Amino acid sequence: MSEKINQALSPEQQELERRREKIKLAQELIDSNETFAFPGFDPGYVDEMRIERDDPDLAGFLTPMHDLLTKLQNEGFKVSLGDNPESGNVFVLPKSSTDIVMDGVLIRCLASEGVNDERLLKLISI
């Protein structure tokens, strides 16, 4: 049924619905205060992330890739909507971090293999 409804929506309305769904799922995970095991990054994003995070010109602005990986593997991660929740940008952070600029990674960069939480899987994919 929802597929028929989505077909009747304009592309802008579909995007708005997708964003609302993302925000709702993310907020559920935030409210649950859950910590998730780090599944690794999707290989399609690793090289780009490494180049950006290890750029000497950005030292002090972004946590270097090796340090971020170590934090995520040791602590697990939590979900965050960031400073502008209405944007629909969903981030993951090491459990102990509150600094999205230094430590935040868009949730779509996570590997989905090994993720057991259906809400988390959906967030990674949308």
3D structure, described in words:
- Helix content is 50%, strand content 8%.
- It starts with a helix and ends with a helix.
- The model has no long low-confidence stretch (mean pLDDT 90).
- The radius of gyration is 16 Å and the shape is globular.
- With 126 residues, it is mostly helical.
- A 3-stranded antiparallel β-sheet has the order 1-2-3.
- It has 6 helices and 3 strands; from the N terminus they run H-H-H-H-E-E-H-E-H.
- The chain has helices spanning 2-8, 11-32, 43-53, 65-75, 100-103, 118-125; strands spanning 77-80, 91-94, 105-106.
Tell me briefly what this model is:
This protein has 126 residues and is mainly alpha-helical. The chain is built from 6 helices and 3 strands; from the N terminus they run H-H-H-H-E-E-H-E-H. It has a 3-stranded antiparallel β-sheet with strand order 1-2-3.
